[in-house]
Amino acid sequence: MKGLLAAGAIAIVMSLGSVGAAADGASMLLAQRSRGGGGGRRGGATEADARSLVRGRIVSVDAATGRVALDVDGTILESTFPPARVNGMKPGDVVYITVNLIDTRFAVVMGSVTAVDPQKGTLTVATPRGALTVTTTVTTIQPGDTVILKLDVVDLGPPLGPSAPPTDRGPLPTPVR
Hints:
With 177 residues, the protein is an all-beta fold. It is built from one helix and eleven strands, in the order ββββββαβββββ. The strands form two sheets. Strands 2, 3, 4, 5, 6 and 7 form a six-stranded antiparallel sheet that branches. A five-stranded antiparallel sheet has the order 1-11-8-9-10, with no helix packed on it. Strand 9 (122-127) and strand 10 form a beta hairpin.
């Protein structure tokens, strides 16, 4: 896999976007099962992912913990957001919710966060086959949180430097010692 690198990303499953009273209308489809179509994948989406923007109404908010219950067409969804994100929200507010569906049959690894180092910008995830430390700007994940590592292969181009000798020339010169 010359020039390829497997990259992992922590999947954010839901995010909120407030809207005013002018928000009317039903669910709006953003992207669904993005396949090829003349361009690269956007936002790390894979062929097995679907993303929708749906309208909901806040049922309850716990500003101290960031816990929010939302009514989306009669279905109650509960999730925890950073407390600063839900600051000012109140029951009855209309919001749009980005829902990212990740097909866990493809390119995902389940894990549990074991350490967070905000100074280094890293977090360590225990996976079934060992610990993985990743660099991230996410500040809301804490030790003990369950996460999904969503993997994708990224083409970084040909390797740089003398790690692979050119195929059209002779061997590399022996370094002088």
